[in-house]
Design brief:
There is one protein chain. This protein is α/β, with parallel strands linked by helices and about 280 residues long. Helices cover about 45% and strands about 10% of the residues. It has twelve helices and eight strands. The chain has a six-stranded parallel β-sheet with strand order 1-2-3-4-5-6. Strands 7-8 form a two-stranded antiparallel ribbon. The protein is globular and about 65 Å long.
């Protein structure tokens, strides 16, 4: 992508809805020259986006920049200590990202059943539950644990509107919760990706190299260019692609509206059922 490509997507979203929407800016190490993050931030502000989520690195610079422009800021955190730091920096909302998530789950390996409850103990700002969420039962559980809502990623990649190839989506439907791989553990830059032929090759190299592993040993397999080519060719085994453990819960490829409608209805049903059970227990 590019900053101007980001501008086009923002304008396209605005044509599709009159509801508020946010844009994510993830700052991560890159193999080559880093993306022009400042230009992306400039586009987000110029286009009048109201909500921005930052992730991947210390958000101090970005929170200050976006808040000075009047945006609501969210920062994605995989640990309570990071969330507390983000609060001190003035973030408006925290996204607590559990170990189940796709992408980079950090090195602490804390699942959402503990992480969200710790958020209720420690945080003063609103937070949402991220990572491994696909169903209304999980939404109800997240609310019970103290979150104000949920953030879904992988679930929406397996929808009709997603521009991923159908072959990728079908792999998710056919997968179980064990069909993801944690790469780069020895490099202290853990990434969760879908278990495919390339991921298996990376696993084999990592196992063979052990503590002597260097990024250059697997760079040819995990480069973004290879992943983009695989996506263009519809080859789910051609490169690595991010997916969370939630793939085990995905059983169909609905529309985005259907995902939200079913999730909310299921959550409401669960909450009402729990309320009835509580009332009965008091009789």
């Amino acid at each position: 992508g590019s900053p101007e490509g980001c501008r086009e997507w923002i304008r396209r979203v605005r044509e599709l809805t009159n509801k508020p929407f946010g844009v994510n800016l993830t700052i991560l190490p890159s193999i080559g020259a880093p993306p022009p993050y400042e230009e992306y931030a400039k586009v987000i502000i110029e286009e009048g986006v109201k909500i921005v989520e930052t992730a991947g690195s210390n958000p101090k610079k970005w929170i200050r920049l976006f808040k000075s422009a009047g945006l609501i800021t969210i920062h994605k955190c995989i640990a309570i200590r990071h969330a507390l730091s983000a609060e001190k920096l003035g973030v408006d909302i925290v996204s607590l990202d559990g170990f189940e998530c796709a992408g980079h789950p950090g090195e602490d390996d804390i699942g959402n059943f503990v992480l969200q409850a710790r958020g209720a103990q420690e945080l003063t700002k609103p937070y949402v539950c991220s990572g491994g969420v696909s169903t209304g039962r999980q939404l109800a559980a997240a609310l019970a644990l103290g979150a104000e809502g949920v953030n879904c990623g992988t679930r929406f990649c397996a929808t009709i509107e997603c521009n991923w190839p159908d072959s990728f989506k079908q792999r998710m439907v056919d997968a179980s919760e064990t069909d993801t791989v944690l790469m780069f553990r020895k490099l202290h830059n853990t990434a969760r990706v879908f278990r495919n032929a390339v991921a298996a090759e990376v696993e084999e190299i990592e196992a063979d190299k052990g503590n002597d592993i260097e990024f250059k040993d697997v760079a040819h397999l995990v480069m973004g260019a290879r992943g983009r080519k695989a996506e263009e060719e519809g080859d789910p085994d051609g490169g690595i692609w991010s997916a969370g453990q939630v793939v085990g819960l995905i059983k169909e490829i609905p529309t985005c509206q259907e995902v939200v409608t079913v999730m909310v209805a299921e959550a409401e049903g669960c909450i009402q059922s729990l309320q009835r059970n509580v009332r009965r227990s008091r009789l």
